[in-house]
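Before drawing any conclusions, I needed to go through one protein's amino acid sequence and its C-alpha cells, quoted below without any editing.
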Amino acid sequence: MKRKSLLGQLQTLRFRLHELAEARGSLTDPEVLALSEEADRLIVALQQMQRDELTIPGKQPSAYDRLRRDLKKPVSNPEHSSRSTFATTSAR
C-alpha cells in the first residue's frame, strides 16, 4: 500500500515539475530544483523498498527476477545436439 502511495505522489510531482519548469522557462530555477530534489527523494525511497523486497530471506522471486535468472543460464545448442544424433543414426 505504501508503495502505491509513493508512486502516486511521484506521478503528481512529475506533473507539477513539468508544469513549473515550463512556466519558469528554466530547469535551474530554484523552485524547479527544489521540486526535482523532492522527486529524487521519492525515487530513492521506492528503490530502497524494491531492494528490500528482493533481499528478504525466503521470499519468492518475482516473475521478472526469475526471467532474468533464466536468461543468465547457459543454453545448450539444439542444432549441435540434433546433428550429433543425426550423425549417429545415419552411421548405422
